[in-house]
Design a protein that fits this description.
Chain B: This is Trafficking protein particle complex subunit 2-like protein. The complex is a heterodimer of chains A (1338) and B (141). Chain A is α+β, with helices and mostly antiparallel strands and 1338 residues long. Chain A is 32% helix and 25% strand.
Chain lengths: 1338, 141
């Protein structure tokens, strides 16, 4: 809208002239009341502009007071009316002009005081529009957020130099906005008495028919009517003080002058008498004056300076009345002129005048009507316009300019009257009417400029229109569209001019304006709107109104416009318009339209070589279209992106976008695609073939999507698992949609284990021509992909260790050196290997049936595997065109062992037995070529006892221990057997592990392993009973019956039932030991008990009970007497007293074996739960708290076998004591009556003390005192003492008197020290006395 | 001179199913522009209130979507949100009723084509027969 003159845009107000008493004018103007309206308001960039414009005014009267106006001229631009007066053609005297102008500037400054401007600024910022004055929007910003036209849209402050032409939007001088305004109802201007110009008298001779107007609208008419020709003139008359008649005459003549001055313009008159005091209104002088004035007394007023405010209200009301009347009359006059005239131009002019007058009267409907009439009239005349009549296009330019003026008014009024639809329709009509350019071809660009501007103005109107509330809903109302079209016409303008610019660029005519791009001529020089001004170089000629200027002049203007055009930054113009379009369109959230505008912006940036911005917008754009799947548009965006990226020298992005661009979804042509493919190759091979050159500085890795539309890759392991040391295949399928055959350089497959990595290379350079003879889908070794071909690459992998093998990446390299590497990170999306339902890695089952079924199934799968892997049939390979199950991992398992391990043995084993085991390997696999069996037996974990274990090939320790065994070749289904022996010296749970490794004839190595549990027991449970020589069970075991159970671990000394009570106590620790050492006194106590006593005969009964499930044969049972060392080596107490520990005879036996009851019995069968008994007669030779007298050695064999094993069972630990006194009673076994027999008691003192004894012989009670069966000699009663370690002998002679069983006399020997009777002599003994047969015979 | 310059069918998710321009001697640039126009018109269709909600078949016609400088864009939307869009020259003056009939015919062609069991729903129509039929239909307006 900056192109339109302010006078035209502003809402016109009636003009009232003030004459006389200038001091009053200021107050009048100040007190004029205002009315509110919503209308355009000129926004000045900054407050200093006004002062500068005033200065400007001061220095150059002819220039416009409106700072904005200076920026808008062009050869056909809408020339602002501005101040039309100039030196040479002003109809007004210079003095009046000066006054008018000054007055105008006052008005201007009044309306735009700095405070007000700043207020406007605030409003602007409140409206979230950027302030126009300090707009620092970068030129690249797509969205200058501003509603108004003008300064704020200026892209840069620096770029506007030389772009003033046509650059309404570029103008730095402000813009327009719509605001609530309080405008004065009247505009006043000071006029000198008689200062009004005279209306040009129509020459009566010239009839209206013959009058040929030179133009349609006079350029100065609007300004004249708004600024210089008042509708009403108010004459202020200072009431003279002196009352002299002379002063009255002056007043009267003044009235006359004014009246005559305004008469022919029909201007209304008001007279105001200014008095300092009240005067008599019926004064004679006043009456004369009234008469002279000849006006309605209503308009004859009086005022005193004190009441001026009140007066102004009254005055303005009257002035408005008159003014309305004036404009009404003007309308009528003009209407009558219409009827008189026939010339179409005049028709337009008059209709315009009526419309404008009506607008001043605020009669907008009439105004709109007449503007429309005027427009229609103009269109009618346009139809008559022929290009031939208008060779330079000047008339057409005038037409369109006037039409633009009218269209603006029509649109604006329609919109303001809430009839936007009408405005739209009118604009549509307007544009259609002027779409076809009439005029010289070289000026066509000016027409594009004009259309662009029309769209822009209309868009601005729509944007500013307060009633346009539907612009977010209805796109027709949206200014965005019009801005967008405006931008398009700017680019058309550029295109049109481009063809010209070459012709004129070097033209001397154009270049001479280089330094002076401001319009040469003054704005006010125009005579008619839309016509070039007459040449000021010849002002007199110009004033003649002859617009037919010579050719040179026209060329001059044209060249000037070209010079200006040459300096236009179209891009910023266009971008700015697009930005506004974008901003406006975004209000409705029309993202597709926004995308379209984005693409337009991007294109504009592209052609202005702002590739970075172009890239930015196209990328955004491409995103939207990709989401919407609009491939055609996406293709375009991508192709533009590619070009931009190429220009920006971004090879990496180029490759990326090229990949996108080549995607088969897009709608680009084959040629385009192959060009891009070629470019890709050039980047790698010969960058000089691209302009600008583009090459990679380092290898580029392109991470490919799983299924890239251009090139996709799938991988597959045919199986989910395989076995170690076998072969498996790995398939890689590529599907290429490159438009042309393409040769890659290498294919790399990477696994998580490096040693499996594979690579295929194609040595032929990628740029070399690919032979057309290459057959599609044929088996080839190269890396050439024909268009839309899928190729399958098979890799054979030799599996090694057991692991989970995963394919991690597949890389396809294009080129060597700085190559493009397409990488598929398979592991990121791959499906992991299938879960194997049956865990074939588990140990072979012991049970036969499952293992058989296992074998069957695995045989099946195996044969399948074989088919796949070994037989390289084409048919077994997956079809690369079909989707196959993608599987990037494979589980490498050990080869499934198909042999069966069995052990034949008869459990349990017995301690010390060479336990016979037979291993049997049944081969269910292929023929076994070789193999190894490893034997392993668990070593003991119990540290307390040492158990010797071993595996032997023979049943004796001398044979070689068996740890491994080489397998011979075993045929399929055959079995292998081998016997071996396991020895174990103690009871244990033996775990025998057998590991079998073998290799079949196919070279498949398998492992199998099995554990066998073999319990080792003693198996025979012996019980021992000790008796003394009296067959008295030894009472050494309190609570027990003297038996001990040597079975099982009890032998080892751990507490058990029976014997363990004593044994355990002794083992238990030194307490018992200490008791023994503290004194021998205690030991005397034991003399009474039936413990095992040293040096006294002992009977041992061993009862062996079999707990074995099988029968054995006991060959022989012997008792091996232990040596002292052996018995000591057992956990025993230290040697008892009297046996020094450093006794050199440690090898001496602890006892003496007298006899063995079973010495001559051999081979006794012993089945389960039967007993075997054997008696031994032994004499312990030493004493001890816990002494094992020896070992029972059982020689046995299995009933079925022949191997005799020896099972030693140690005797339980027993306490062997010694008496302090060893008493030996020697009595014959029988006596004979009458034959004396000796009864000897030997007492050995085993202590270290002298022992004293008392001896008393008591007759048994049955004897009575006399009736004794014996005669008796010896001491009846005595005392004696025995020295240590010596023996004392008491001898009695008994003479039996009576035959029969007689108790012997009681030889009571009591130790004095112990005060106890000796045990041996305690019990009464009997003696059989035989009758003396000799006596009988006699 | 043909009035219709472009016929477009847009799927439920605003993806193009069929776009064909029919003006002779159209430049590549203008072809692209037609695509843009059709695409932009989707914005208008989305914004159009009213007829979409009613279940009356005749209301499937959306009327003039928007005028561009050179073309007028008319729209038609089925109940299944398939949009038919035609772009006609701005100079041509066509009655709404005629356009409605045209759209009806176009829709029945579309239905026939997409009833083909080999047609994948919501995919681009590549049937040559359909193209031919549409081409034959053009002069009817």
């Amino acid at each position: 809208m900056n192109e339109l003159p302010d006078d035209f845009v502003n809402l016109p107000t009636p003009l009232v002239g003030l004459i006389g008493v200038p001091s009053l004018h200021f107050y009048i103007e100040k007190y004029i009341s205002t009315k509110s309206s919503i209308d355009f308001e000129r926004i000045h960039p900054q407050s200093p502009a006004i002062t500068s414009s005033q200065q400007h005014l001061g220095s150059n009267l002819s220039s416009s007071p409106y700072p904005n106006n200076s920026s808008s001229p062009s050869i056909d631009a809408l020339l602002p009316v501005g101040i039309q007066q100039s030196f040479n053609n002003s109809p007004l005297p210079t003095s009046l002009l000066a006054a008018t102008t000054l007055n105008h500037s006052n008005l201007d400054s009044l309306g735009h005081s700095p405070a007000m401007v700043s207020q406007q600024m605030e409003d602007l910022s409140l409206n979230s529009n950027t302030s126009n004055s300090n707009n620092n929007n970068p030129p690249l910003s797509p969205l200058p957020t501003i509603v108004t036209t003008g300064a704020s849209m200026s892209p840069t402050s620096t770029s506007h130099t030389g772009i003033t032409i046509g650059g309404g939007a570029m103008s730095p001088n402000g813009g327009w906005r719509v605001n609530h305004l309080n405008v004065p109802v009247l505009k006043v201007t000071t006029i000198e008495v008689g200062g009004l110009s005279n209306k040009k008298e129509k020459k009566l001779g010239q009839s209206s028919e013959s009058y040929e107007p030179q133009g349609i609208l006079k350029a100065n008419w609007i300004h004249k009517n708004t600024s210089s020709i008042p509708s009403v003139v108010t004459l202020f008359i200072q009431w003279p003080e002196d009352k002299s008649p002379k002063s009255h005459e002056i007043i009267l003549s003044q009235i006359d002058t004014v009246k005559s001055n305004i008469k022919n313009r029909n201007i209304k008159l008001m007279i105001v008498i200014v008095t300092s005091a009240t005067i008599d209104t019926y004064d004679e002088k006043v009456t004369i004056m009234r008469r002279k004035a000849d006006i309605d007394p209503k308009y004859f007023l009086f005022v005193t300076k004190t009441e001026i405010k009140m007066f102004t209200k009254k005055w303005e009301k009257l002035a408005l009345e008159l003014s309305d009347l004036y404009y009404k009359e003007e309308c009528h006059t003009t209407k009558s002129q219409i009827t008189k005239t026939t010339h179409p131009y005049l028709n337009v002019r008059y209709q315009f005048k009526i419309a404008y007058y009506s607008e001043i009267r605020s009669d907008f409907n009439t105004s709109l009507k007449y503007y429309t009439f005027a427009y229609n009239s103009l269109m009618n005349s346009l139809k008559d316009l022929k290009p031939t009549n208008d060779p330079k296009g000047i008339r057409f330019a005038e037409f369109r300019t006037v039409a633009s003026f009218l269209n603006f008014k029509i649109s604006k009024l329609s919109m303001w009257l809430n009839n936007i639809t009408e405005a739209l329709q009118h604009f549509d009509k307007h544009i259609k009417s002027f779409k076809i350019y009439l005029g010289p071809a070289e000026k066509e660009f000016t027409h594009a400029t004009w259309i662009s501007r029309e769209y822009q103005i209309f868009a601005e109107l729509l944007e500013l229109c307060p009633g346009n509330t539907t612009k977010t809903i209805n796109y027709n109302n949206n200014p965005g569209f019009y801005y967008q079209v405006s931008a398009r016409y700017q680019s058309i303008r550029r295109d049109l001019f481009k063809s010209l610019s070459d012709n004129y660029k070097s033209s001397s005519h154009a270049s001479k304006f280089k330094g002076d791009l401001k319009p040469r001529y003054d704005l006010a020089l125009c005579t008619f709107i839309g016509q070039p001004p007459p040449d000021v170089a010849h002002p007199l000629e110009g004033s003649s109104g002859n617009i037919m200027t010579n050719d040179d002049e026209v060329d001059h203007d044209f060249y000037r416009s070209i010079a200006i055009e040459l300096h236009i930054n179209y891009t910023s113009l266009i971008i700015e318009l697009y930005s506004k379009a974008y901003e406006q369109s975004s209000l409705g959230g029309n993202f597709r339209i926004l995308s379209y505008i984005e693409s337009l912006i991007a294109y504009e940036y592209y052609i202005s070589k702002r590739y970075d911005l172009s890239l930015k917008y196209y990328s955004k754009n491409a995103f939207a279209y990709r989401r919407e799947k609009w491939w055609t548009l996406l293709t375009h965006s991508l192709s533009m992106i590619l070009k931009s990226v190429h220009q920006l020298n971004m090879p990496t992005n180029y490759v990326g976008y090229a990949m996108d661009y080549l995607s088969p979804d897009l709608s680009n042509s084959y040629i385009e695609r192959s060009n891009i493919q070629q470019s890709l190759l050039y980047i790698l091979t010969d960058s000089s073939k691209l302009s600008p050159p583009l090459s990679l500085s380092s290898p580029l890795e392109v991470n490919m999507e799983h299924t890239h539309p251009l090139l996709n890759c799938r991988v597959q392991f045919p199986q989910s698992f395989t076995f170690t040391h076998s072969k498996t295949e790995f398939y890689v399928v590529f599907e290429s949609h490159f438009p042309n055959p393409i040769r890659f350089s290498s294919l790399k497959v990477k696994f998580n284990e490096k040693s499996y990595n594979k690579q295929i290379s194609d040595p032929i350079p990628i740029e070399s021509v690919i032979s057309p003879s290459i057959q599609r889908d044929a088996q080839r070794d190269d890396l050439v992909f024909l268009p839309n071909e899928s190729r399958l690459f098979t890799f054979t992998l030799t599996t090694k260790e057991k692991m989970e093998l995963e394919c991690q990446t597949v890389t396809l390299e294009l080129g060597n050196g700085n190559s493009i590497n397409f990488i598929w990170n398979i592991h990121e999306w791959a499906i992991k290997h299938d879960e194997i339902s049956e865990d074939i890695n588990s140990d072979a089952s012991l049970l036969l049936s499952p293992s058989l079924s296992n074998n069957n199934s695995s045989n099946n799968s195996k044969s399948n595997n074989k088919n796949n892997s070994s037989k390289k049939k084409e048919t077994s390979k997956p079809n690369p065109y079909k989707k196959f199950l993608e599987r990037s991992t494979i589980r490498i398992l050990d080869h499934e062992s198909l042999i069966q391990i069995k052990c034949n043995h008869n459990s349990p084993a017995i301690v010390n037995e060479y336990y016979e085991v037979e291993i049997e390997l049944i081969n269910n696999d292929k023929d076994i070529k070789k193999g190894t069996v490893l034997f392993e037996i668990n070593q003991q974990q119990n540290h307390t006892t040492i158990i010797e274990k071993g595996i032997y090939t023979e049943a004796n320790k001398k044979s070689t221990p068996l740890s491994s065994l080489e397998l011979p070749a075993i045929a399929e289904k055959a079995s292998f057997k081998k016997k071996f022996f396991i020895y174990c010296s103690g009871p244990d749970e033996n775990k025998l592990t057998i590991n079998v490794s073998y290799e079949t004839k196919n070279g498949e190595i398998s492992h199998s392993s099995k554990i066998f549990n073999i319990p080792v027991l003693v198996g025979l449970s012996p019980q021992f009973h000790f008796y003394n020589d009296n067959f008295q069970l030894c009472e050494m075991y309190a609570g027990g019956n003297g038996e001990t159970d040597a079975n099982g671990p009890n032998v080892g000394g751990t507490p058990g039932s029976g014997a363990s009570v004593v044994v355990g106590a002794n083992v238990g620790g030194g307490v018992a030991v200490g008791n023994n050492t503290t004194g021998s006194s205690n030991s005397s106590n034991t003399t009474n008990t039936g413990s095992i006593v040293q040096k006294e005969p002992l009977l041992l009964m061993s009862e062996i009970r079999s707990t074995l499930p099988y029968s054995i044969v006991i060959e022989k049972v012997t008792l091996q007497i232990a040596s002292i060392a052996e018995s000591v080596s057992l956990p025993l107490s230290p040697p008892p007293i009297g046996q020094s520990s450093d006794d050199p005879n440690l090898s001496m036996p602890v006892a003496q074996l007298l006899s063995n009851s079973n010495a001559n019995i051999s081979s006794v069968d012993l089945s389960k739960d039967t007993n075997y008994s054997v008696w031994f007669n032994i004499i312990p030779l030493i004493t001890g708290e816990s002494i094992s007298l020896g070992t029972l050695l059982i020689e046995w064999r299995r009933k079925s076998g022949s191997i005799v094993s020896k099972l030693p069972i140690p005797l339980p630990h027993t306490r062997i004591t010694t008496n302090p006194f060893h008493t030996d009673v020697v009595v014959p076994s029988h006596g004979v009556v009458g034959e004396p027999l000796s009864h000897i008691i030997k007492i050995s003192n085993n202590t270290n003390f002298l022992q004293e004894f008392d001896l008393v012989v008591i007759n048994p009670p049955s004897f009575g005192s006399s009736d004794i069966p014996f005669y008796f000699s010896g001491d009846r009663s005595s005392s004696f003492s025995v020295h240590p370690e010596s023996t004392y002998e008491i001898k009695h002679i008994l003479l039996p008197l009576v035959a029969g069983k007689h108790p012997l006399p009681h030889f009571k020997i009591t130790s004095k020290r112990f005060n106890k009777e000796l045990a041996k002599t305690q019990n009464a003994n009997f003696l059989f006395i035989k009758p003396n047969l000799e006596w009988v015979n006699k | 001179m043909k009035k219709i310059v472009c016929v477009a069918i847009v799927g439920k998710n605003n993806n193009p199913l069929f776009i064909q321009d029919f003006s002779s001697g159209i430049t590549e640039e203008n072809k692209l522009k037609l695509h843009y126009i059709v695409h932009c018109s989707l914005d208008i269709i989305e914004d159009k209130p009213g007829p979409v909600k009613k279940n009356v078949p005749s209301d499937m016609y959306l009327g003039l979507l928007y005028p561009t400088e050179d073309y007028k864009v008319y729209g038609y939307m089925t109940n299944t949100k398939i949009k038919f869009i035609i772009v006609v020259l701005d100079t041509s003056d066509i009655k709404d009723s005629d356009i409605k009939i045209f759209f009806k015919r176009l829709q029945s062609l579309f239905i026939n084509t997409t009833s083909n069991p080999f047609y994948k729903r919501n995919s681009k129509i590549e049937s040559k027969k359909f193209l031919q039929e549409v081409t034959n239909l053009i002069p009817s307006l």
